[in-house]
Amino acid sequence: MAPLIGWMAGALLVSALLAAGYFVLTTRRIAARAERTVPPAGRFVEAGGNRVHYVDAGEGRPIVFVHGLGGQLHHFRHPTFPLLPGYRLIALDRPGSGYSVRWSQATARLPEQARAVADFIVALGLERPLVVGHSLGGAVALTLALDRPDLVSGVVALAPLTHMEDEVRPEFRALYIKSPLKRWLVAQTTAVPASMKYAAQTLDFVFGPQKWPEDYIVDGGGMLGLRPSHIYATSSDIVAIEQDLGVIEKRYGEIAMPAAAMFGTADRVLDYRRHGLALRDQMPGLDFELVEGQGHMLQFTAAERVAALIERTAARAFG
Fold it and tell me: What are the beta bridge partners of residue 57?
């Protein structure tokens, strides 16, 4: 009996190793294709220990764009830049996302992410830019406005994460991985093939009720999410949120600079009542706009409304 049990255990181990090898090779193949399809689009700068990838276009007063969870700089470069002539427009990959690399001791906590954007602003020598953030990037932008008001002139938050949820949403549970080792193993094996398999459903959820643009996969940078480093960073971001957001959400009334926020009433990712109306109630001077029937990806689906809000806030911030 003992030899049989040993043989069965060995067979199971070999099967597990073969399966893991298959997923690793599949992940590498998908990731390589993603990087060929959407290569780096800009420049790199060392900022606070992070290697930050960014694009820089136009001339005038600076506006810095910070993307959301699982995103990258094309979330603004593609739909928003063409609508804002007369400004210097800078979009960055948040460290860990896109082609930016987080420093080795990074925790992904919100104050740390805000500090990374602050270090980026200093590294580029930008004179008190307006900062625009979407979703998790909105939380980062608001935290930056709270922690370093000397560095920025104003803030625009698009469908921002502003308050703690009661629990992790079902759509995000697969990426809520507390163990860094397990997070790394999942990112290197099953996460990328699974993300590719369910990409259409994920995009329907994120963009809904609007249809995601046909050019989103390439021009919107969507392919870049199919890489282990991106999966790992997204999981790290989700896990880290709960460490600080509960404290940060009590401080929004301290923001005295020009500020604006926009939500869609049909947002499936972040409910406008919990995250939008609650923010408005805490910030009496907030320029708050609700867009009827719109979902989460406002910069794509309500681009002209977004550009108008940014220009309106820029006039206040730079005036």
Answer: 89
Q: Are 294 and 210 in contact (CB under 8 A)?
A: yes
Q: Widest CA span of the chain, in angstroms?
A: 83
What's the start-to-end Cα distance of the chain, in Å?
Answer: 83
pLDDT band with cut points at 50, 70 and 90 for residue 17:
very low
Q: Are 91 and 55 in contact (CB under 8 A)?
A: yes
Query: How, if at all, do strands 62-66 and 88-92 pair?
Result: parallel
Dihedral sign computed on CA atoms, order 248, 136, 120, 101: positive
Helix, strand, coil proportions of the chain in percent (round to 5)?
50, 15, 35
| Calpha distance 301→298 (Å, rounded) | 5
- Plot region of 96 (φ>0 → left; ψ -120 to 50 → alpha; else → beta): left
Instruction: Give the separation between CA 232 and CA 127, rounded to whole angstroms.
Output: 33
Q: Residue 142: which residues within 8 A CB-CB, separation 6 or more?
A: 133, 155, 157, 160, 162, 248, 252, 255
Q: Express each pLDDT in 132-144 by its tens digit.
A: 999 999 999 999 9
**Whether 189 contacts 23, CB under 8 Å:** yes
Whether pTM > 0.85 for this model: the answer is yes
Report angle CA 105, 121, 102 to the nearest 5 degrees: 20
* Phi, psi angle pair for 154, to nearest 5°: -175, 175
pLDDT in tens, 187-245: 998 888 888 888 899 999 999 999 999 999 999 999 899 999 999 999 999 999 999 99
Question: Which pairing describes strands 130-134 and 154-158: parallel, antiparallel, or unpaired?
Answer: parallel
pLDDT of 272 reads 96
Q: State the number of CA atoms in the 13 A half-sphere of 219 facing the CB.
A: 10
